[in-house]
Amino acid sequence: MKLIILLMTTLFVIVDKHNNLINSKTTSPTLQESSINGASYSLGKERPLNNSISIQNKIRPQESIKLNTFTELPKDVEGCVCYFYLSKVDETRRKYIMTEIFAQIAYISINGKMQKFNLVNFKDNLFYNYSNGDYTLRVEFKNKIKTDSENFSIKGVMMLFKAQKMLIKKNIIGECGC
Fold this sequence. Notes:
By secondary structure, the protein is an alpha+beta fold. The protein has helices at residues 2-23, 88-93, and strands at residues 27-28, 33-36, 39-42, 47-48, 67-68, 81-85, 98-101, 105-110, 113-123, 127-131, 136-146, 152-162, 165-177.
């Protein structure tokens, strides 16, 4: 990246010197500017009528991803459900980090927006992979303890991916039941 910036800066200096020579011959009354990492570079006071190249900085800032806990459940969360938390304190306060329905649909909040994920594949009691088209969510069970005939508690790991790149990894605890 530094090499690209250095090359671009060198290109602008060369173009600027070239434009200064041409400006005395043929010009139009427009100003051409370009920006690299917030610094503005002017390519002469006037734009030459001959061959000019417009260079735009198309690098987007890094997308910031934050998982949020939530206390209100989506309306379709009922029946056989799992609730996941980041800590015992969150569990006591019912601050969910994730919830799932029949292991088919999962919900998490990313940057304050509730996201719905659909089950893609799984290996029962080991892992569950979900996707919503933008992100992939993987839940791995590390410890599963049956608490009664239809309920059990879980300790595991939740990972959020975008385009095969892991964005977030969180230890979770949870409870499942019907």
